[in-house]
Amino acid sequence: MLILALSIAVVAGCKKDEADKNDLIGTYTRVMEFETGSSAVDLQFTDDGRMLWTLIGEVSGHSSTQAKYSMENDAQFKIYDDADCEFEDGLFSFITNGNMLTIEVVTDVCAPRVNALSGEWTRK
Known about the structure:
The protein is an alpha+beta fold. It has helices at about 1-25, 110-115, and strands at about 25-35, 35-45, 50-55, 65-75, 75-80, 90-95, 100-105, 120-124. An eight-stranded antiparallel beta barrel has the order 1-2-3-4-5-6-7-8.
């Protein structure tokens, strides 16, 4: 009986990690305010570890970008290989609630990336 209980706990633990990554994978959107105007922005986390930040409209001084991400645990992801941030890594936490994704910085020295990612996003 104890072996069965431990087996169920191990399987449930594995499924939780997969579910949390699957919660993050997808495309999200929000409107962002910039010093030169506002625009809708899409944020996509792919299943192959890419993060795409896409500016939908034109805003002077800003453009779409991409980086890589990896899951650090069931509630945090790391951004790396980001040419816009001189290849500095950033660590972020996330929570999903229905169609909402909330991202908060844990540690990141790249202020533009912190501003671009932090906050609430709506799943498309």
